[in-house]
Amino acid sequence: MAHLVLGSFLVSPPNENIVIHNPSRPWWERYQPISYKLCTRSGNEDEFRDMVKRCNNVGVRIYVDAVVNHMCGNAMGAGTSSTCGSYFNTGARDFPSVPYSAWDFNDGKCSTGSGDIENYNDMYQVRNCRLVGLLDLALEKDYVRSKIAEYMNHLIDIGVAGFRIDASKHMWPGDMKAFLDKLKNLNTNWFPGGARPFIYQEVIDLGGEPIKSNEYYGNGRVTEFKYGAKLGTVLRKWNGEKLSYLKNWGEGWGFMPSNRALVFVDNHDNQRGHGAGGASILTFWDARLYKMGVGFMLAHPYGFTRVMSSYRWPRNFVNGKDVNDWIGPPNDNGKIKPVTINPDSTCGNDWVCEHRWRQIRNMVTFRNVVDGQPFANWWDNENNQVAFGRGNRGFIVFNNDDWELSTTLQTGLPAGTYCDVISGDKIDNQCTGIKIYVSGDGLAHFKISNTAEDPFIAIHVDAKINS
Ligand code: AAO
Fold first, then answer.
1. Which of 29, 65, 175, 202 is catalytic?
2. Full-prediction pTM beyond 0.90?
């Protein structure tokens, strides 16, 4: 596993969704299911199978974004404007391609006037009413649970390794357990016998609402939304925050236990103002700080990490809000453009491919190399210069102050010459970027200009030069 650059990736919802023309094909139409057929703008079932097979054969796992809390918006009407042409009728609550009918929705259980969630401080509304008008499935029904499990088991048969479960906050944890208990073990073509799907639940708990992340621990991991919101605040130096305060990052900051947490700097919602996290969230648009944030996350032992990979869209801020927050992936008349790879290994066609940026790609390797090693050798200047290591396998130094960092630090690493994997790579036993010399006592001198392209340095034992 340590040789893999990426261990796995999460794909957009692969099941049939509504087609929206106004606005034109927004990214978020994929969160409005019409059926559980594998048929979207990303491809059909044969193409999905082919992708999963080819990835599994080279050790790359695929997780699926499972949208099972709801179907499409309640006011979408009737017709066949869906990615596979399946008929639906929202007025009649009719989705014959599943099939779901009026019995299978929560309308009778919701007590708000609109039928939608109006108050997040009422946990019954949050679970029984419609999230932004989306038709809310009645998950206490065994029939509904079985349909969801059938969809997910179909994906498991194809070879997926697990699921992000969308809008988990809007489902009762016990109802989720009921369909999760129906899931099969992973496909033994690629996974050991008895292996269970990896599950992580999208629950936005920033504190201050009655629904808490810990209600979901029994079902799998849970998204820790405080992580990206706080890390962005610290790197932006808002509210008097400093990097030195990250010394007790993790549970010490009021986050959930590390072995429950799924962490990320940004996601597909909050990189464009949807969901939660607010203005502090760092994204590829703030590339310099973003690379530091992702670098910090990947070096730090807290949580199960997820890296975002995006596309560019024409942002247009009107009164502080991006009115283009709906724009879908790069496309030609609706057909998604391929992810082309440039000679320098970045992506073309407006795909950002953060996961291919040298600094991020190399920090994924760093994380694999230091896996299981303890947090060690913390140093800070009581301001925005900090450093820490992971046992005797890796060490990272950040300068987010407005002045140069120049200091000798205990790295915990064996003596030798190391390539900084942020400014370059180790290629043919040579460094294309900065070199760091660790002496026999583990000490090394670091110098980072505050105006450096990337004001951080990371070294690890696989980036050591053999002499
Ligand atoms: C679209 C249209 C809607 C239309 C609807 C139906 O935009 O106008 O009514 O269709 O026709 C995505 C898009 C939606 C889109 C939807 C369906 O984001 O715009 O609606 O597809 O096409 C809540 C949920 C969370 C959800 C998030 C967006 O809890 O589950 O909203 N995320 C997932 C997906 C997301 C997807 C869906 C769910 C639906 O990742 O892509 O929606 O499948 C509070 C609550 C949060 C709540 C937010 C946002 O957060 O705590 O639970 O998230 O509000 O409403 C501070 C607070 C923080 C608060 C935040 C925002 O930060 O501390 O707690 O402010 O107020």
1. 202
2. yes
